[in-house]
TrEMBL record:
Enzyme Commission number(s) from the entry: 3.2.1.67
Compartments in which it is found: Secreted
Main location: secreted
Signal peptide: 1-18
GO CC annotation: extracellular region
Keywords annotated in UniProt: Carbohydrate metabolism, Cell wall biogenesis/degradation, Disulfide bond, Glycoprotein, Glycosidase, Hydrolase, Membrane, Polysaccharide degradation, Secreted, Signal, Transmembrane, Transmembrane helix
Official protein name in the record: galacturonan 1,4-alpha-galacturonidase
Keyword match Transmembrane: yes
Catalytic activity: [(1->4)-alpha-D-galacturonosyl](n) + H2O = alpha-D-galacturonate + [(1->4)-alpha-D-galacturonosyl](n-1)
Summary of the function given for this chain in its UniProt record: Specific in hydrolyzing the terminal glycosidic bond of polygalacturonic acid and oligogalacturonates.
Enzyme class: hydrolase
The family this protein is said to belong to: Belongs to the glycosyl hydrolase 28 family.
GO BP annotations listed: cell wall organization; polysaccharide catabolic process
Organism: Mycena venus
Amino acid sequence: MLGSVILLLLSTIVSCTGQSSGPTCTISPLGVGRDDTNQVLNAIAKCGHGGHTVLQDGVYNITRKMTWDLVNAKVDLHGSLNFVPNIQFWLNATNTYRVVFIQSQASWFVITGSDFEIDAHNTGGIQGNGQPWWNFFTTTPRADGDGRPISLTVFQAVRGVIRNFAIDAPPFWCNCIAESQSVVYDGMKCNASNTNPAFAGQNIVPNTDGIDTYRSDNISMFNWDITSGDDCLAIKGNSTNIVAQNITCRGGNGIAFGSLGQYANLTDIVENVFMENLTMTRINSTIQPNMQNGVYFKSWDATINGAPPTGGGGGGGFTTNVTTRNVVLDRVNRPTTITQTNDAQSGDLPSKYKFENLHFENWSGTSLTNELVALTCSPAANCTNITFVDFNQPHSVSVVRNIFKTMDEEVLREERARKTIYADWHTDSTLPKYWSTDWNEWELTHFWEERALDGKLKIDKLFKETWQVPGTIKPLAYMVSTGGLYFLFAAGGRYYFWADRQLTIHSMEFASPQEFVDYALKADGSEDGSHMPDVEIQQIPDADFSWWSN
């Protein structure tokens, strides 16, 4: 498989680096405060077919959506395309392209065409001005994309090369390639790093994926360096013959195969993927607190949420012939997760999506949790022919145990209740017996500390600065689960529920703790809390909420 992909790659590079001679267009930035959009588009219109366009060093201010249609052409981008942070303008759907079908994501810059090369010479690329966007969405609810634009979208392109490109501060995904064939990315840097000290230690840069591949074939990624708050690479549906080599992921969620099966009536296929020389490294937590996974696979099995869906699905398909080789992990939370039941709820049909022929070779490094590999497989599809060779992940604190789980339906329901829907609640003794007063010190220290402190900072900011709630904020209860971190707390004579779930802030107000309990039981779907079992977690040793006031 690898040999055939490399032959396709070589033919792509040869065809894209031998363009015929034609007109040359050379432009320079107009200057501070000037709009460069027209001159950039005019140069591409004149020289984008059979010609050569040169954007000299400097900052090009881009104020509206832009398409480069390139055929048998070359672009030398020495400068930076500066997309001005007019947030409300870009959030208006008429001001972006909606060419990426999945979740109808927005794009402000689209490259299309055939037989082209774009070289940014390690000096040029895109300035996304993401900081104002990230600040904005700390107090404004978001639902998946919500119109935040992808920085660079390659759409319906054939035989293209993008070299030595940098994207700084993307509001949303750095890259997306959709409905394209035989495209090579050689040298890509993406940096989504919060610089606002008010949010130090928090992940306010969610959804800043390095790239999402979708409905594309023969796509190659070489020499990438991604600092992200989400997926470093995301291989989505109908991505085939994919090569990724020499990839460094700094923070975020790691490399994802998914989401898959998000549309119930569509089939998602991922086939023939080869990745090697991958590094996942945890960075300074004041910049990015997360480093969740090495490589993980997920398909949806749940009630569809929203249109277009931002969750759920239950669609069919398969992922097969995937190799990840020479992987080094630095303090990731979990090296590998494979789940066919992402976001599953009681009553959902078993997932029809299949993972098979997955091969993990020569893995090393450290992880922070005691699961080396976690598999959650559906009885309707199963996980087959998954191999691990030289898979060595010493735990950062103690010896790692291999954990393999293949769920039948009854066990799966129990696992959902225990880990996915509601985990262990912790509160005062006046509440039901399946609640606890203990803060688990091991959880706080080794897994949830950054999430918890992140939650405290967000709550403080929201209530004291944004909503101006008087008085001291007192935490009363908390819950941790695979889905997020939840708090019940008192402020200004009222009780509030706050959740950091899927990196989205929600809050609800209650007149009393009992009203909160009633709400939780209703959400649980049982009258007595039977779906909220008292999970036994090793206590090492107990702690209280004293850290809250530190």
